[in-house]
Write a structure and sequence with these properties.
Order of helices and strands: HHHHHHHHHHHHHHHHHHH
Strand content: under 5%
Radius of gyration: 22 Å
Distance between the termini: 57 Å
Number of helices: 19
Largest sheet: none
Number of strands: 0
Helix content: over 70%
């Protein structure tokens, strides 16, 4: 937005990457500790604390008068986001019966796509505001939503019954289970009084979750306008509109993926989705490398735009839904929050690398970065093909037994 440059300062590619990525390293650091915090305080209080800090950071961003203040707000917002994001899926996983766990645990991803969709069209509408309100308004709305979520979580939600059982509070746990309507046989069997301080996670699990969400949302969420501009949509209005259409497609495809999450396998969607995602990136790379993409003419630029749309749709239907569930359901109670936090921290670190380097890469080469992204996607497919057991329709106890059987076979 030109209003942003006039209010603060123009951004070079390096400074642009630094601004975008300033939310990611704090998120990675706070995510490392969020699992331990959730084990100590409980899922609800830890989530509420994270959303409150996120809202505080958004408030600082909206009132920024200097670039340094904006970066400080993003750092604080990153601390909050890393503190609550992985715990949302952990909480839903722990309160859901096996028959609908995939669908219910996909709800955060559905709301992520709603946020991306509304965010782009909010920016598309606010870009015409002549004052600095054009870029401050989205931050104001973010802060209001975050504070509202904090209050509603504290006032309306019960604590995880599995966390209560692990803390020896069996009566409270039973009351919550009954309120949720989950049958006795579907409740995870936990030894009463067992403390959930474990933070360990195996190397195999790290490899599986490391590919879960690493760079896709950052690439499409933060840099979609840049990617569309490089394909020939040069104006701020047209690139934001094209990005908004991409966000709309992501939202629309997430709805059936969310509803059907428990009808198809986690592993199948992972392998098929990753293969198609990598193919989209390689096709774009080939088009740029062969100089087939021109800003004002030719079919190449439209193929690039279609491939970006297809990538967004496939990712949202496959990895965007399945991995969020898988990361939490493969862990036992004592390491679930810690492992989910570890996976998200790895995600944030990878996001930071991509967010910081993408403007620099695109300024130097339009093709090389797409080959890198495509190769990373296919590498994740190979890892998951070797290390990812199917968990659809299984109780949390059955999943733990499955991993134990694999460990015994390998030993």
């Amino acid at each position: 937005m030109p209003q942003f440059s006039s209010s603060l300062s123009p951004l070079s590619p390096t400074l642009h990457g630094l601004l975008i990525s300033s939310i990611l390293i704090p998120a990675a650091i706070s995510s490392l500790f969020s699992g331990h915090l959730a084990n100590k305080l409980g899922r609800i209080r830890a989530i509420s604390l994270g959303t409150f800090v996120f809202g505080l950071g958004a408030s600082i961003e909206s009132s920024s008068v200097k670039l340094g203040m904006l970066i400080a707000g993003r750092v604080i917002k990153g601390l909050g986001e890393g503190g609550f994001l992985s715990l949302l899926v952990v909480y839903i996983t722990e309160i859901s019966p096996p028959r609908s766990r995939g669908t219910l645990a996909s709800i955060p991803q559905l709301f992520v796509t709603i946020g991306i969709f509304t965010g782009y069209f909010l920016c598309y509408g606010s870009v015409s505001i002549p004052s600095s309100l054009s870029w401050r308004l989205p931050f104001v709305i973010q802060a209001l939503i975050a504070f509202s979520f904090t209050l509603s979580t504290l006032l309306l939600l019960d604590e995880s019954p599995r966390w209560l059982t692990a803390r020896g509070r069996a009566e409270e746990s039973t009351r919550v289970w009954e309120a949720l309507g989950v049958r006795v046989e579907e409740r995870e069997r936990i030894e009463p009084g067992k403390e959930c301080d474990g933070m360990s996670v195996g190397m195999k699990d790290i490899l599986v979750v490391f590919g879960a969400k690493v760079w896709k949302r950052t690439m499409l969420g933060k840099y979609a306008p840049i990617l569309f501009q490089s394909a020939g949509l040069s104006s701020s209005t047209s690139s934001f509109l094209a990005s908004g259409i991409s966000a709309l497609l992501i939202f629309l495809v997430t709805i059936p993926a969310f509803l059907l999450c428990d009808s198809w396998g986690r592993k199948t969607s992972t392998l098929v989705g990753g293969t198609v995602q990598g193919l989209c990136m390689v096709i774009i790379g080939i088009l740029y490398a062969s100089d087939s993409v021109h800003s004002h003419s030719g079919p190449g630029r439209w193929v690039v735009i279609i491939m970006i749309y297809l990538f967004a749709v496939v990712f949202s239907a496959a990895w965007g839904v399945g991995f969020r569930v898988y990361v939490s359901e493969i862990q036992p109670m004592e390491s679930r929050a810690g492992a989910a936090s570890l996976s998200l921290s790895a995600n944030w670190i990878s996001n930071w690398i991509v967010a910081f380097t993408t403007p620099i890469f695109l300024a130097r080469s339009n093709s090389g970065v797409y080959f890198l992204w495509g190769g990373a996607s296919w590498f994740t497919v190979a890892v998951c093909a070797l290390c990812m057991p199917e968990t659809r329709g299984k109780s949390l106890e059955e999943i733990q037994g499955l991993f134990e059987e694999l460990r015994v076979l390998k030993s």
